[in-house]
C-alpha cells in the first residue's frame, strides 16, 4: 500500500507539472500548402528533456485523405492501424462504423484513422483501398486518414522491460502508446467527445445515439471516462477537452506500461476512482489474429449486442426483497448495475416490467446470475400481460399469456409479434420453484416492432 501511494503521488506530481507546462507553452497550429495538410504540434518540454535526454515534440501530422471540417462534431471515433502479418480488419471495421450509423448520426461524427506503420508501401496501398471503398465518406468529411513520420517518434528499442515483457513486446506496446498520443492530440479540436476503438471491431447499430443517451443520463455528475466495452481500451469515451492532456500523459509514460493500464491511471489521477461502464457493450472485438506477431486472439465481449434494445419507459416492480441499493429498475435501465434479491426466493414470487404505453414486441432477452454463474434464477416462466390497472400502490397487470421458460437462468425469444399480435402492457417473470440461493437479474432487454 505504501509503495502504491508513493507511485500514485509521483504520477500526480508529474501530471501537474505536465499540465502546467501544457497550459504555458502548448498550442496547435494548422497550416496548408499546395501538397498536403499538416497539424503542427509545437515543441514542449518532454519527460526525456526533464531527464536531460532531449527529445523534441515538434510533430507534423499529415492528412493523407479526407476533408477537415470547420464545424465541430459531437463525436470523434479514433483508431490506429498497422500492417498485420495475417488478416487485416481495418476496412471491415470502417464499414461497420458507417453502416451501423444513420445519416443523422454520421452528420454528427468524424472517424479518424491513424495509419501508424512505418512501411511506406503499406500506407500508400491502404490509403488507396480506403479511398476506393469510402470515397463518399472522405468527401463529406466523415472520415480522415492521418500519418506521423517515423522521425517524430521517440526511441522504441532498448526500453525498460517492465512486467518482464520481452523486448519486442515492449517495443510494440510502447510504440502503440505513442501512436495513440499523436492520434488523440490531432483529434482534440474536432468534436465534443472522443471514443477510442481498435481496427478490428464491429459496432452496435446506432451506437452514437446510445452514447448520447448515456452521457445525458450522467447529468451534471462529473466523469473522466465512460466505458462501452469491457475489453482493453475499446469503447473508452473522453471529453475532447481532456485529449491534449491525455496525449501528453501517454507520451510521457509511453515505455512504462500498456495503453489500457495508462488509461486507467489517467482516470484515477483525474479523480474518477470507479469504472463507469454501460451495458450492453457497443463494440465487439472481431479480430482472430493479433496485430502483434499475428498471434491467435480469441477475446470476445459477452455483453455486446449488435442491435440495441429499445426498453421503452416503464415501472419495474417485484415482491422479492432487494439487497441494499440493487433496486429492480437496475435490471432494466441498461447500465452496468443489476437487481440482486435476497433469499428465500419462493414459488409465486415475481419480477415485472409495466410499460407506460402498450407496445408490440419483436424480441425479449433476459439474463440472470453473475458472470461466474452464481445466483441464477433456476425456475421461472416469462409471461406477457395485456391490461394494467394503476392504483395508489404498485400497478396491477392482468390478462397474462405464457411466452416461455428460463433455461440456465436465461431467456430469449425473437419474432414475438408473429405469435403475440396484440400490444403488450407488462412483462412478468414468475418463479415456479423455490430456491435458497439469492437471485441476480442482470438485464431485461425489450425490442419493439418497427413500423414499415
TrEMBL record:
One of its GO terms (biological process) is protein N-linked glycosylation. It comes from the Eukaryota. Residues 314-442 form the MGAT4 A/B/C C-terminal domain. The keyword Manganese does not apply. Pfam families: MGAT4_cons, MGAT4A_C. This is Alpha-1,3-mannosyl-glycoprotein 4-beta-N-acetylglucosaminyltransferase C. Keywords: Glycosyltransferase, Transferase. InterPro entries: Glyco_transf_54, MGAT4, MGAT4_A/B/C_C. It comes from Chanos chanos. Pathway: Protein modification; protein glycosylation. The keyword Lyase does not apply. Residues 50-304 form the MGAT4 conserved region domain. One of its GO terms (molecular function) is acetylglucosaminyltransferase activity.
